[in-house]
Amino acid sequence: MPKQEGRLEVPEVVVERLPLYVRALKELAQRQVEVVSSKELGERLHTTPAQIRKDLSSFGRFGKQGRGYSVRTLLTALQQILGLDREWHVAVIGVGRLGRAIISYPGFAPEGFKVVAALDNDPRQIGQVIGGLMVQPIEELPRLVKEQDIQITIVAVPREHAQEVIDLAVQAGVRAILNYAPITPRVPNGVRVQNIDPVLSLQAMTYYLVSGERRPLKTPSGAR
Amino acid sequence: MPKQEGRLEVPEVVVERLPLYVRALKELAQRQVEVVSSKELGERLHTTPAQIRKDLSSFGRFGKQGRGYSVRTLLTALQQILGLDREWHVAVIGVGRLGRAIISYPGFAPEGFKVVAALDNDPRQIGQVIGGLMVQPIEELPRLVKEQDIQITIVAVPREHAQEVIDLAVQAGVRAILNYAPITPRVPNGVRVQNIDPVLSLQAMTYYLVSGERRPLKTPSGAR
DNA sequence: CACTGTGAATTGGTTCACAGCC
DNA sequence: GGCTGTGAACCAATTCACAGTG
Lengths: 224, 224
What we know:
By secondary structure, chain A is of the alpha/beta class.
């Protein structure tokens, strides 16, 4: 049985590593470094040179033999591949402490992620201004998505409301969701979800803490 | 060459899934569900029954043929395996907006993660009380780790300071670090790191958004 | 009879090793 | 000479399929 249709299916693990490369390359660019080898990049990211070369080879031939990769060229290429050469409009749903921290986080804008809307369902929050945005009722989501050209939603509501909020976002046409609520959301095909749950991360580490009590462990750096 | 020493090396991917099972089981337990099959659990978590059975089989035989798994029994077993049957003491370093949101996050305590210390290097922050904790200067970390029996550190400082703060934590004897700063930290063997960087998560999703413009995609739910 | 637990089969991902090139 | 790009070899993870069992 053939794979699904003719396109160069790049494995998801590879796609998830590309942003890491971008981050490292940006740092190098800022330090005026012009060329980097897969070996050097690998050392920075605690991965192997072969892995990096393999990953990149799924998208093209960016390097120069005997020399390495031009930082600028590779960076530009990866940004284009990842769609980072444009601005993305983001809505944040839920303006509790976490939502507020997200809205005010200065790390999004320089990467092209612009928070253009803040929503909540709590009447006491609605109308407040956070990070220059007036908090809107959740019912406004479909309109905002359309008018503000929102492609990404960040969900920072309590667990009980997360699935319904995600359903609404999907309904409104959003196809990428960054979910901070501790659930495994159900979404239709074609919608991407990334979940961030610090409790899960902690719980995976405690496994090694307790088993490390028995014997020492090596140090695989929990991805990313 | 043998693997490293005689123990039942459980792959890291498996360990990272266990907390997901715990989360789902807790929810079932709360709803008074007594028995669950790998099929049902798989549906909740968007994974296959075989995967769940395989994962669990690395740790023991928890199920009953023809019936499934006792929710309570399996939950207890997994909690013990992950070391969740005790209380873990956590220090939060960095009390900016994110650090404050973390300290006040009500999701940690019920899972046995108790934030017992808050630290910062900004003199204006030191002495303030956040979530019942007085903010201490970073220099106090070694003392606090010892006196408060801290095993885990959450790093929520700006990028520029993250590596040094992590070095200090390691120096102080911490062997598990949850890092929110956008860096790939360098840590010695035996120290676990989990990184949380929403920008990386967003960047992985935009890849699919732009490639999806060309043709529709299936929906693998970005892990967890 | 409906499920688990698990070897075997398969699929997927990583690493090796080297030809080719700058 | 030093590095990339890439098939081939290897290793890891997932899925299959079925024997075993409450």
